[in-house]
């Protein structure tokens, strides 16, 4: 029971003890901002702990601070406790301001303020706003001159005492020298054609920088402005000097151990800019006195492509010798004597020149036209392959699938150490052949995207027995020629070439390289049209273009499921009902062949196929033809004139004459609305009433007007104008009207055709308004504003009626 009583008394004891602390707290400045060193100050804000001024209009009330600051500003009370001082602009560096609470300043309740009474802030000493070269540059010269943009003028003595360089490899800090006079002006002119409006300092290290070294510019604590405000901490900018001046030779190689490819350009890259007058003297000398002159290149990409052009440049860093070059030859890169860079540095690796380089033989090549193609059966089908510098007889493999044996069935008959393969999928009555074709078609597409050319396309798949064949080169192993592989029988073939020479050249090791392709030899062409309710497949012969009847047609998805099979009718057409939509089909992978539909067509001795993604046809852009949406020239049948905003419209038929001109004249009706009208040429007349001019609400059939099938031809405006016939003028006295009760004004009315409008009735209206004087040095003052009256103020306009003289002039006193 005693414990409960003690617990009940404790809150009252706490209140009793704490209350006197509130009563004893003195009024003071709770917050003063900013204080210390702050950049970019625009306003000083102060909050007092108690109410200082009454609510309402705070103008003309107490000013709490005595301000010592070189920059002007205005003070105001935000509310009863908060006071602000707004500067006219953002304060620059080097400004120091002192705010002293006025002696005897009291709160609204009459209490005197206690606590801190002096508040000081500054915008800090001079700091670096930007530099040239820019901070982080790694191309600083060994004797670099730095141009520093500051936010305040510093004193020269403080610069010499507090600025230094920290240089990699040198333990002591290195001092600076300040450039001035004519030397300074010459340097600034190269960077600033006009006189700079900001503080600038031009400095240089007293010691030469080593090449390829880290350098730090230390803008130290204590740099003083001319207003005696110093920096309070270091500011450090980091740089790196450029590499030694060197020249590097570059050329394309088949592998790192090979010599230069003779059909690719060679280049010489400098680590620093070189005057073109010197660089153009560099030559590449070849066998039998042949010589290649240096050329400039826009970029390394153009350099390797050989797309070079002679350009008038002051300095270059890359020169190019354009291909081709003789194969298996020796060349010498010769430099002119005294070659230097833009800073006058001599070439650090000049002892490497004249540089001797060699070209290799023309690189081996074995290339098919594409990963897959179609050859016409009855046009002497020959598969072309481009060969150069490979074996006299290129090894290939012919792999034939007999009827009834697929990939799995041929696995056990696989021969070891095959040198090449050609896979032929025979035409047969079953569906196994289509599965084989679809498998290898996707295999070839994936092979070219993800494969490793060091492995055979057949090496990781189960395959039937392969037949080895050889492809002879009629003009010898070194010849650059196109050789044909005859494929006389219809079918789908997968062909792979194998060349150890090609592999050794590109891989740099004694292992072969494999080059595969696939080809369909056929006299059939399969066409497919995919519809929502029904679809069509029709088969034609390539040699005659005629349809092929009784062709076996099958439609499969990416998983090989047969969605429809049947035969073409007497017209060579197969009509398919209710095929799934694209969204209703399985998606086997992201590849286009692993989506959509695969359609095959077979006859007794031939077969062909098409995929639903093969819908580009003949791409018009390849032959500079119009896009497929282009329908050719369209003859417009009517013209529609429609008002913007109200949709008021007029339609007229176009009548074309023999010269192809249709002239339409529109007599603007009186009820036509003013404003802008658009002129639209309609492909087809809307067949609406010509006098339909209703505006506003929609009526049935208005779609033809809201969305016209045509092209906007232009626009016009319908306006009303009043032509003036007379001119009136008022002339006031030239001298200023100061403290006058009346003045005379001259009136004149005349005809534009000439002569005064005599005896014309004229009404003159005037209004006298007070003029307020303002002076630039007294922004806070209002002059001649009179006494403020808290009541409604009324004002009347004076008015006279009178007639002019016969000369069209009148003079009347205006009273105020």
Q: Can you offer a commentary on this structure?
A:
- It contains nine helices and 48 strands.
- By secondary structure, it is mainly beta.
- It has seven domains: 24-122, Immunoglobulin-like; 128-240, Immunoglobulin-like (Sandwich), CATH 2.60.40.1220; 247-358, Sandwich (Immunoglobulin-like); 365-522, no CATH class; 524-617, Immunoglobulins (Immunoglobulin-like), CATH 2.60.40; 638-659 and 671-718, no CATH class; 726-815, no CATH class.
- Strand 40 (638-643) and strand 41 (649-653) form a beta hairpin.
Annotation keywords:
single chain, 816 residues, mainly beta, Immunoglobulin-like, four-stranded antiparallel beta sheet
Largest sheet properties: 6 strands, mixed
Q: Please report the number of helical segments.
A: 9
What Rg is obtained from the alpha carbons, in whole angstroms? 47 Å
**Shape category:** extended
Q: How much helix, percentage-wise, in residues?
A: 10-25%
Number of strands: 48
Number of domains: 7
Structure summarized in a few sentences:
Helices cover 11% and strands 34% of the residues.
Which secondary structure elements does this structure contain, and how are they paired or packed?
Layout: H1 2-24, E1 29-33, E2 36-37, E3 43-48, E4 65-68, E5 73-77, E6 82-87, E7 96-101, E8 118-122, E9 128-132, E10 145-150, H2 156-162, E11 163-167, E12 176-178, H3 181-191, E13 200-205, E14 214-219, E15 235-240, E16 247-251, E17 266-275, H4 276-279, E18 283-285, E19 291-293, E20 295-296, H5 300-305, E21 315-321, E22 330-334, E23 355-358, E24 365-367, E25 372-376, E26 382-388, E27 393-401, H6 407-410, E28 421-425, H7 432-450, E29 466-472, E30 481-486, E31 491-499, H8 500-507, E32 513-522, E33 524-529, E34 534-541, E35 552-556, E36 562-567, E37 573-577, E38 598-602, E39 607-611, E40 638-643, E41 649-653, E42 675-682, H9 703-706, E43 710-718, E44 726-731, E45 742-751, E46 761-766, E47 798-803, E48 809-815
Parallel strand pairs: 2-8, 25-32, 27-28
Antiparallel strand pairs: 1-3, 3-6, 4-7, 5-6, 7-8, 9-10, 10-13, 11-14, 12-13, 14-15, 16-17, 17-21, 18-19, 18-22, 20-21, 22-23, 24-26, 26-30, 27-29, 27-31, 28-31, 31-32, 33-34, 34-37, 35-36, 35-38, 38-39, 40-41, 40-42, 42-43, 44-45, 45-48, 46-47
């Amino acid at each position: 029971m005693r414990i409960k009583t003690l617990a009940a008394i404790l809150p009252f004891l706490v209140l009793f003890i704490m209350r006197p602390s509130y009563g004893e707290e003195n009024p003071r400045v709770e917050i003063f901002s900013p204080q210390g060193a702050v950049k970019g100050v625009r306003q000083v804000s102060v909050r007092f702990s108690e109410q200082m001024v009454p609510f309402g209009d705070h103008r003309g009330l107490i000013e709490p601070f005595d301000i010592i600051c070189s920059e002007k500003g205005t003070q105001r009370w935000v509310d009863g406790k908060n006071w602000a001082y707004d500067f006219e602009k953002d304060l620059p560096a080097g400004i120091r301001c002192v705010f002293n609470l006025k002696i005897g300043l009291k709160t609204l309740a009459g209490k005197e303020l206690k606590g801190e009474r002096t508040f000081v802030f500054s915008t800090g000493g001079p700091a670096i706003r930007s530099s040239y070269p820019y901070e982080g540059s790694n191309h600083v010269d060994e004797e670099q001159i730095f141009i520093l943009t500051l936010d305040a003028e510093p004193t020269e003595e403080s610069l010499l005492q507090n600025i230094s360089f920290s240089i990699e490899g040198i333990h002591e800090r290195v001092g600076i020298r300040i450039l001035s006079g004519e030397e300074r002006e010459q340097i600034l002119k190269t960077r600033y054609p006009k006189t700079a409006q900001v503080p600038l300092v031009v400095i240089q290290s007293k010691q030469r920088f080593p090449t390829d070294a880290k350098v730090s510019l230390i803008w130290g604590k204590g740099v003083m402005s001319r207003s005696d405000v110093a920096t309070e901490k270091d500011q450090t900018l980091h740089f790196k000097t450029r590499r030694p001046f060197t020249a590097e030779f570059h050329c394309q190689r088949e592998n790192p151990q090979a010599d230069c490819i003779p059909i690719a350009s060679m280049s010489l890259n400098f680590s620093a800019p070189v005057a073109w007058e010197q660089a153009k003297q560099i030559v590449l000398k070849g066998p039998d006195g042949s010589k290649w002159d240096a050329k400039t290149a826009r970029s390394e990409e153009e350099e390797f492509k050989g797309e070079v052009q002679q350009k008038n440049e002051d300095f270059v860093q890359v020169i190019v010798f354009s291909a081709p070059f003789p194969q298996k030859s020796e060349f010498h890169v010769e430099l002119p004597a005294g070659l230097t860079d833009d800073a006058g540095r001599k070439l650090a690796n000049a002892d490497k020149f004249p540089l001797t380089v060699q070209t290799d033989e023309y690189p081996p090549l074995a290339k098919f036209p594409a990963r897959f193609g179609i050859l016409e059966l009855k046009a002497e089908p020959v598969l072309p392959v481009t060969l150069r510098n490979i074996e006299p007889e290129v090894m290939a493999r012919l792999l034939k699938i007999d009827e009834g044996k697929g990939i799995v069935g041929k696995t056990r008959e696989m021969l070891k150490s095959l040198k090449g393969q050609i896979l032929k999928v025979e035409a047969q009555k079953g569906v196994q052949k289509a599965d084989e074709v679809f498998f290898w078609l996707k295999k070839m597409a994936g092979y070219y995207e993800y494969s490793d050319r060091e492995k055979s396309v057949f090496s990781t798949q189960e395959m039937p027995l392969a037949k080895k064949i050889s492809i002879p080169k009629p003009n010898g192993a070194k010849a650059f020629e196109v050789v044909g592989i005859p494929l006389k029988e219809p079918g789908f073939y997968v062909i792979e070439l194998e060349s150890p020479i090609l592999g050794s050249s590109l891989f740099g090791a004694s292992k072969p390289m494999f080059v595969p392709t696939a080809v369909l030899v056929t006299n059939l062409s399969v066409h497919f049209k995919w519809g929502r309710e029904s679809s069509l497949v029709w088969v034609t012969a390539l040699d005659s273009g005629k349809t092929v009847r009784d062709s076996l047609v099958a439609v499969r998805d990416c998983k090989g499921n047969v969605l429809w099979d049947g035969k073409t009718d007497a017209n060579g057409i197969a009509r398919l009902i209710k095929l799934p939509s694209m969204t209703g089909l399985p998606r086997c992978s992201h590849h286009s062949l692993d989506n959509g539909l695969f359609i095959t067509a077979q006859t007794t001795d031939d077969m062909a196929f098409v995929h639903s993604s093969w819908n580009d046809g003949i791409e018009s852009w390849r032959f500079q033809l119009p896009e497929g949406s282009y329908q050719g020239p369209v003859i417009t049948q009517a013209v529609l004139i429609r008002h913007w905003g109200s949709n008021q419209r007029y339609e007229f038929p176009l009548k074309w004459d023999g010269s192809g001109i249709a002239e339409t004249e529109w007599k603007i009706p009186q009820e036509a609305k003013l404003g802008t009208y658009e002129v639209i040429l309609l492909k087809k007349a809307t067949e609406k009433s010509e006098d339909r001019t209703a505006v506003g609400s929609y009526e049935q059939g208005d779609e033809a007007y809201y969305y016209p099938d045509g092209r906007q031809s232009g626009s016009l405006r319908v306006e009303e104008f009043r032509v003036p016939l007379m001119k009136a003028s008022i002339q006031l006295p030239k001298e200023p009207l100061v403290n006058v009760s009346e003045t005379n004004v001259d009136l004149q009315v005349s005809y534009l055709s000439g002569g005064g409008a005599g005896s014309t009735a004229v009404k003159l209206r005037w209004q006298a308004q007070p003029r307020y004087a303002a002076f630039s040095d007294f922004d806070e003052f209002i002059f001649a504003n009179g006494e403020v009256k808290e009541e409604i103020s009324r004002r009347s306009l004076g008015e006279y009626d009178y007639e002019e003289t016969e000369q069209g002039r009148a003079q009347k006193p205006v009273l105020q």
